[in-house]
Each structure stands twice: as structure tokens, then as C-alpha cells.
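subagent[fold] <- orchestrator: predict structure for attached chain, return C-alpha cells only, no commentary.
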Amino acid sequence: MYRSLSRNGWACLSPCSSRTVSTYQSSVSYLRQRHHASTCSARQQTSCIYNRQVVESTRSCHRYYTTLTDQYNARVARGELMEDPRQLVMLEKLEQIRELLDAYEPPCSRSFFSKLFSKSSSSEEIKGLYVHGGVGCGKTMIMDQFYDTVHSRAKQRTHFHDFMLDVHERIHTYKSSMSRSELRMATGVDPIKEVASAIASETFLLCFDEFQVTDVADAMILKRLFEHLFAQGIVMIATGNRPPDDLYKNGLQRSNFLPFIPLLKEHCNVLDMDSVIDYRLLDPKPLDLPGGKAMFERDDEMVDNLFEHFAGIGISQAKSRTLRFLGRELKVGLSHGTVLITSFNELCKSNHGSSDFRALAKTYSHILVKDFPQLSLKQKTPMRRFIIMMDLFYDRAVKLVMSTHVPITQLIDLEATADSAADDLRMLMDDLKLTLEEAKAMNLFTGEDELFSQKRALSRLSEMQCNDYWKLPHRPGTLERGEISGDDSSRVEK
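subagent[fold] -> orchestrator:
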């Protein structure tokens, strides 16, 4: 019996039923394929079927598409990119993965007879890719090019921090769905395994931007989560700033996190981009906007004018709006449609967390911010909120307009940040009565991750002032599982 159709094109049927699932349009033609349901886990009592191209067709037409390298070279020839040999190496490795994905059937998608008689080439594990390097070296751009050319809907591209928020929400929802008696009886039930199975039923390809582990709650579950994901055939592509051995460096209870590192290396090849060039900072062109830019120094009036330009109404006609999600209510600034105008104090000095910024990024395509001061670690909490906000806004292609106290290249005082991190370390050493040698032996936090995050935020802020970024469509994402429900224009609060 038909149960549901997930957002990524998988159909879920009861174990004993069989239905024909229509495929979707690929880049070449319409293909159709019949699948039969196979039993997944006994607990879920569902089976999962792919909506994708016929495997035999892709094998017989192995290179019916333009290669990633050819696409890249064409952009170089048009003057859109500067050729970088490190980027070409990454492209070649992703091209190999893309070819293997064309004929790939993860374990969850194959029936009993398919598993019994399939050729080894379609059942062998595909190793993913973990790429690390400096800010602005092109890691995310190349990964996005790869993702856009994978011919399947059963794929997901997301910011890693956003993904882990979703995992924790799913775990909470799973536990909340069980009664107290069920919780007492469910001694052998692993919510993390159930969540991993649900994710594997939606996608077989996970592409993560900014794979960075800073939260102890994430660190404690990563090994178990990805152990189950990899076991179900998930292929992972990820970009980050640290090599695997340095992930969650100096983090709390890191010994519990360490088993994840060999697991990551086992299922992903590792590539070091090792580039000192930040391409986002090279030769920015004026924006096709009134004023020719989206960052203004002490010009709140220009921000008001741009709100009218985007929203089609004056700021006096804008109204407040309440977003409701996960049992929370969020009320920030004034808005009309998908355009929001607010201030730095409302965004970064109020008690907002990652889920709040994610809700804003999913709801609003344009966010205009007034009265933005210079930041350093002397204002630790607002600074960290700003970094999280920038990552989530960038990932959703939110168009950001700001009136700042200083030029954007000076928006974060990196020297003051480094001094503050050193002061924090000295205070901690004094509190613990440690010598410098003892502190080094304990590998105490030096602020390196924080400094990198700040540099990344400035780099992305520069890219967000380019026409290419402004041409990107807003990626609001799915609003499933009751994640967000806001007042529409006819019911906004006065």
C-alpha cells in the first residue's frame, strides 16, 4: 500500500506491495524503469525505491555528458575563472566519482534478487572525497559544479552545521514520538541508527560545505551516525579547512571523537587544496543595483531605499512577522514578502541561535541590516552569531545588504581577535595554575579555528557583493516536519 513520496524522489511502499514508479527527466532524455519494493529495516517496515535513470542505459552511454574538466576549461576560456592546477586535480577526482555514481545502487535500493545476482561493479562501495584548504581557494565552487551535474534527485547538498541541526531535530522528534512505556522498553533501540536509515532512504549522495566540528554534541554522535550512513551506501563529498586528523582539535572529550577520523579516511579519499589565493577578493565588479553595491558605510538611508527597491513598498508600509518553528517564535525587524530589514542588535545581540538564523535564511531571499559595527573577540557572542549567520545565509544564497561603521574589509578586527584569544589562554593558564610548557602539552585551544572562521566570513562577505552571487536563485529549502510556519502577508502582525 502506498505510504508516502519523499522530497528527493523516493517512493516508500509497504514490504509486500509493488508499484511502478515514474522516473524524471535527465539531461538527455526521459527514461522509465520498473522497481519492486524490498524490505528495509524490520522497525521501519518500509522499502525504498529509486526514481532514477535505467542503469543499463547509463552504462552503454558512459560519457553522454560534458566532463567537469571540459566545463571548467570553457569557463576559463570565457574569462570567468583563472586556471588553477589544484582545482583541476579536484575536478578529476570528482569526475571519477561521478562516473561510478551513474551505475551505483546503494544497498537500501536493491531487492533481494538484485543483491544476489547483481554484478560486483554496481554493488562495490564508492569512496567519497574530503577536500581541505584555505578560504576562497575554490573548494565549494568545484563541489557545487559536481553536485549540479550528478543525474539523480536522490542527492543532498548542505552546510554541515545545517545538516547536524537537522540530525539533532530528527533524533528529538523520534524520541518525542515514543511514549514513556515505549522508552522504558526500547533498551535496544538506537535513535541515531533510525535517523541514519531515514536519511539513507532520502539520498545516497551527501555533499557538505564547511565540514567543521566545534560542538561537543555533534562530536559525540558523528562516529555512530556515519557508521550507519556508510553501511547503507551513502557517498560523502565534503569541503573543510582542516585535514581529518585536526578535526575537533582541542575539543571537549575529543577522545570520544577520535574513532570517527579513521572511519572518515576509510570511506573518503583526502585531498589538500593547499592554496594561498583567495579568489573571492580578486577584481570585484560593481553590482547591478542602485548605488552599485550592497555594503554601505554609515548610510542607513541607502539601505531603506534598497528595501523599497526589492520589496516594492516603502519601509513605512512594512510589517512585523512572526516565524514559528520547533516550538519557538522568532520576530525580527520589518518585512514584506521575502524581504526583511533589521539591525545588527536585533540579529546578533539578541538571544538567537543557529536554528533562528536557518529559519531566516529559509524564509527571506533579501536581508538588509543597519548599524553594523566592527567586530572582534572582545564581543565574543555577537561575533560567533555573525559567523554562524554568514555561513547559513551564504549556503542559502541570501542577498545581504548592510550599513556598516567601517569598510567591509575591516568589519572584523583580526588583530584584536588574536590578542583576545591569547589573553583568554593566559587567563585559563592562571586559573589552572599551568606553565606555558604544561599548556602546550595539554594542547589547549589557541583560537585558530575561530580566526579561520572569521577569515572565511570576510571572504564570503566579499563574494556576496559580486554579480555572480546575486544572480544565484535563493535556496529556501524544504519546510517539512513543521519546521517553519510564518504569518502570510494577509495575517502579519501590526
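orchestrator: received. Logging for downstream: The longest strand covers residues 366-372. Residues 435 and 441 are 10 Å apart (CA to CA).
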